[in-house]
Amino acid sequence: MRTARPRTVHPVLWAGLAALAAGAVLCVIGWYGVSGERFAARQLPYLASCTVPGAALIVAGAVLLTYGRGASAAARMEELYALLVSVAPDDGAERGDEGAGEGLASSGTLLMVPGGTLWHRADCPLVAGKPEAVPADLEAAARGDLSPCPVCAPPAAGATRAE
What we know:
This protein is an alpha+beta fold. Helix content is 50%, strand content 7%. It is built from 4 helices and 4 strands; from the N terminus they run H-H-H-E-E-E-H-E. It has a 4-stranded mixed sheet with strand order 3-1-2-4, with no helix packed on it.
């Protein structure tokens, strides 16, 4: 059983949150200073020293949060892909059964899921262990109704052999 790896929080997310908080504080200080002054000439220093930099920090914080979330999502996708391709091969693939020398799956059969649009090798992690997987309809693959799986890369429709 695999243990869950603790999720790490990216420093970019923390920097974005800090920039947002600092920008909000500066905007509140600037607003409070402007609201206490009657003349525009005395309000200008509060706008220049607090409100404008506060707004810039809010924009920078939003950009950092967006970038951090994108980087976090990309890291999760890489982790999921690594889990997908690290599935151990079946015992038949390790023994080198028939068809292994031809580039086909260890059992020599191509599979598909009913209602699906892809055909797979028998040892493909997307169909391995699924009881609903059935032998692929090679006529449908030749017509173009089925496409080869991008994960296991079965042979093209013209190169498949009839079982």
